[in-house]
């Protein structure tokens, strides 16, 4: 496809440009010199997006209806529900996440460049221990750079389809440190972005094995296990299921690394909130503390109110054993949003002790053994290894069901009988049998329950090519349909970027 040139203002906001200008105006002697592997590691710490997609992505999916609670209506929530361009640039908005991703990428690029410059010197001096540490941090930076671009391309560009990826507009893939104020960038095709992600990811996986971190901080950084979980997800999205199986082969089939929902059921709300994203929780592979109001808000008008959640997602009719799902029953009193299992713990960074003002943070789980387990099942189904997939689905279903006993066994007949709320029509649909599609539909519903409120469902809506209908039940004359080829499936490029020359996504 024709590459599109743009300036730095496309990637970051005007405030960030001012910050960049100030940095470039300083003499090199006034900048921090990255001259040791430890300093590379410090830079990599900031190579993770400090924003999140979960709020707008969940509302855009089929995990939202009109609660009719007009007292809690807000503009961004309404715009997300009707797939309108979200104008807000504050926390939890698409623009905020776009900027957060590119800021993280800039940190990753700085770390990679510094690690590359030190490598030859460390090798020539035979400083093996430092060299390996340097490799480890570079590997983490490469995986982090791949991850941020992966999230960007799967929100602002069309979903990957090998038949059209070379002509579909993607997002800019930046791999160098900026040395001028207004460098030209290219809006790469979706295929190019996926190729670059794979290149960074595989190189990073080779190097990240050298990385050693303390147990207190390791789950806030990509390591071997979380990088493999990311690789599994990436290859599923790309349709390379053999590769996905390769990177998920160590996940225990017996479910020993899954979240213990029975234990969670014995805890209080605040205890569950803390434990869900705690590094001590075995299932958690990568955790991020992001600037977000998610843990502070009670939900907007458009959410998955309890009645809808029970009807479409958590009803006993959808359980193959006819029992209750083990995902919680709490609901807010104002918006009536179904909470299920409390997932988000909040923290507050005080910047002004006198006025007690500062920044709100929410801990989110980016990768877990729970989701990796489901991703591996998807790869098994897609390669027609249905007996192995059914065995794992049985483990996951029993673990997710209250009081599941030894007599409760998920058979293929039960799976087919219970049906699914998910229509499977990905780019490789012609290669799937009707039975495989049924299995994938069941799996997608399990992922929908497991990842509820985490925004993951929106990515499944896109890559499974699902049609959605959002109805305004308070004012029934309004109904919006998101067809399979609707351009609103791609978020609009931030206005600052459009103003600086990058073409907007078509509407």
From TrEMBL:
RagB/SusD domain: residues covered: 372-492
Signal sequence bounds: 1-19
Descriptive protein name: SusD-like starch-binding protein associating with outer membrane
Annotated ranges, domain SusD-like N-terminal: 23-235
A GO CC term attached to the entry: cell outer membrane
One family name in Pfam for this protein: SusD_RagB
Subcellular location per the Swiss-Prot or TrEMBL entry: Cell outer membrane
Native species: Myroides indicus
Keywords: Cell outer membrane, Membrane, Signal
InterPro entries: SusD-like_N, SusD_RagB_dom, TPR-like_helical_dom_sf
Superkingdom field: Bacteria
Family according to the record: Belongs to the SusD family.
């Amino acid at each position: 496809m024709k590459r599109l040139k743009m300036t730095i203002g496309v990637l970051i906001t005007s405030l960030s440009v001012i910050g960049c200008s100030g940095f470039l105006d300083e003499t090199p002697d006034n900048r921090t010199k990255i001259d040791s592997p430890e300093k590379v590691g410090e830079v990599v710490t900031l190579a993770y997006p400090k924003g999140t997609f979960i709020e707008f992505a969940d509302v855009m999916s089929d995990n939202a209806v009109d609660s009719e609670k007009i007292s809690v209506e807000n503009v961004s929530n309404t715009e997300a529900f009707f797939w309108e361009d979200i104008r807000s640039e504050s926390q939890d908005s698409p623009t905020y996440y776009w900027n957060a991703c590119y800021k993280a990428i800039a940190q990753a690029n700085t770390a990679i460049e510094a690690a590359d410059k030190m490598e030859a010197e460390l090798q020539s001096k035979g400083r093996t221990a430092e060299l390996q540490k340097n490799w480890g941090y570079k590997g983490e930076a490469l995986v982090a750079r791949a991850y941020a671009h992966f999230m960007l391309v799967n929100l602002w560009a069309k979903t990957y389809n090998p038949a059209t990826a070379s002509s579909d507009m993607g997002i800019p893939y930046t791999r160098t440190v900026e040395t001028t104020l207004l460098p030209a960038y290219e809006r790469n095709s979706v295929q190019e972005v996926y190729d670059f992600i794979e290149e960074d990811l595989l190189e990073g996986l080779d190097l990240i094995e050298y990385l050693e971190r303390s147990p207190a901080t390791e789950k806030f950084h990509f390591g071997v296990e979380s990088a493999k979980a990311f690789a599994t997800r990436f290859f599923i999205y790309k349709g390379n299921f053999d590769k996905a199986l390769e990177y998920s082969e160590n996940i225990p089939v017996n479910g020993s690394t899954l979240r213990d929902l029975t234990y969670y059921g014995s805890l209080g709300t605040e205890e569950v909130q803390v434990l869900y994203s705690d590094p001590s929780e075995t299932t958690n592979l990568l955790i991020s503390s992001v600037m977000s109001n998610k843990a502070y808000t009670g939900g907007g008008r458009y959410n998955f109110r309890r009645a809808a959640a029970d009807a479409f997602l958590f009803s006993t009719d959808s359980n193959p054993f006819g029992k209750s799902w083990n995902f919680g029953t709490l609901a807010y009193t104002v918006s009536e949003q179904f909470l299920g299992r409390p997932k988000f713990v909040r923290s507050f960074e005080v910047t002004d002790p006198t006025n007690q003002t500062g920044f709100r943070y929410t801990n989110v789980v980016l990768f877990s053994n729970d989701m990796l387990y489901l991703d591996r099942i998807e790869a098994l189904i897609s390669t027609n290894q249905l007996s192995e997939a059914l065995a794992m689905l049985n483990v996951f279903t029993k673990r997710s069901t209250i009081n599941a006993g030894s007599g409760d066994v998920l058979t293929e007949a039960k799976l087919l009988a219970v049906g699914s709320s998910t229509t499977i029509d990905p780019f490789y649909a012609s290669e799937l049998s009707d039975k495989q599609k049924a299995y994938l539909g069941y799996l997608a519903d399990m992922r929908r329950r497991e990842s509820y409120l985490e925004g993951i469902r929106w990515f499944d809506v896109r890559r499974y090519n699902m049609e959605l209908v959002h109805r305004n039940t308070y004012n029934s004359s309004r109904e919006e349909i998101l067809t399979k080829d609707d351009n609103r499936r791609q978020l609009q490029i931030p206005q600052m970027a459009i103003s600086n020359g990058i073409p907007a996504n078509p509407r």
